[in-house]
Design brief:
heterodimer, A: 195 residues, mainly alpha, Four Helix Bundle (Hemerythrin (Met), subunit A), 7 helices, B: 103 residues, flat
Chain lengths: 195, 103
């Protein structure tokens, strides 16, 4: 029985990592993904709770956002995620040049996301809509700003692994990038669409 | 470029491309269900529309976890944990939404 367990353990993606052994890629990245999901879940829950108390303020403020820009950014980030996944596949097949090309594509689309977001921030601030305007905008800047910081960090990671190319590096950076994708997928409808 | 990395050339790549197409389509459905055009944008969403929006969001997050992040190759416990957390988050948001509508 112990022998069978040991054999099973060695066939897992990360033998020796205990309960994390069965997770693909870098186990520590999964710890980060789980903790980020918990943090954002708490923020989203708090947002929904406060919205229930100030519905008119939240709905009127949401009307001032640009849901099409947010949707466009969702499409951009999802495509960037696809490129990151294709980069992992390419490095897995030993195609380093192809991998760098996919990473470059993911990076460029990440920059496009940032440009759209900065234009959106400039527009809102130009209208006098700042974090202290009301509770909705406090959450808007907090949640999108926290996510934006992750996008910037992710771009740095993609650039770094394109330089120091290895399967583990690319897989880890791509996992981080998919987490950024995942958070935005949840954030966009909650902030921009649900009313 | 080898045959295996040609776009859609192998099952794994095809899976990624299909997932991407599904995610793009669901994003458009999400936007459409939020009724962004004309006067409807100023009104509260009908319940079915809000439900559809949250359901498509859950499915998108699930696809990213399972395919992009590769969680489908992991154990049922881990798949359940991440799916459960995503579902819990959206149920929390949905509950807050229902309370706001009822108030």
């Amino acid at each position: 029985m112990a022998e069978q367990d040991a054999r099973q353990e060695t066939t897992l993606p990360n033998p020796g990592w205990g309960p994390l052994s069965a997770l693909p890629g870098n186990p520590l990245m999964w710890v980060l993904i789980l903790s980020e999901m918990l943090v954002f879940a708490a923020f989203f829950g708090l947002f929904a709770w406060l919205r229930a108390g100030e519905r008119e303020v939240f709905d009127a403020s949401q009307q001032l956002l640009d849901p099409v820009a947010g949707g466009l950014n969702t499409l951009v980030l999802l495509t960037s995620g696809l490129f990151a996944a294709l980069a992992v596949q390419a490095i897995g097949q030993g195609e380093r040049r192809r991998c760098r090309q996919w990473l470059a594509g993911a990076f460029v689309l990440g920059v496009v996301f940032c440009v759209v977001k900065v234009v959106e921030y400039a527009d809102k601030l130009g209208q006098g809509l700042a974090p202290e305007t009301n509770t909705f905008f406090t959450f808007y800047y907090l949640l999108t700003g926290f996510h934006f910081a992750h996008v910037l960090f992710g771009l740095g990671l993609i650039a770094l692994v394109a330089w120091k190319l290895s399967h583990d590096n690319v897989e880890t950076a791509a996992a981080f990038w998919h987490m950024v994708d995942l958070i935005w997928i949840l954030l966009y409808p909650i902030l921009y669409l649900l009313r | 470029m080898g045959d295996t990395t040609r776009i859609g050339g192998d099952p794994a790549t095809r899976r990624l491309l299909i997932t991407w197409a599904v995610l793009m389509g669901l994003t458009l459905i999400t936007m459409a269900s939020a009724r962004l055009g004309g006067e409807a944008r100023l009104e509260a969403l009908p319940l079915w529309s809000a439900g559809l929006l949250l359901a498509t969001t859950f499915f998108k997050a699930h696809r990213v976890l399972m395919v992009y992040l590769g969680l489908r190759a992991s154990t049922p416990a881990w798949r359940g944990a991440f799916t459960g957390l995503t579902l819990f988050t959206l149920l929390l948001v949905g509950a807050g939404y229902l309370v706001a509508q009822a108030a």
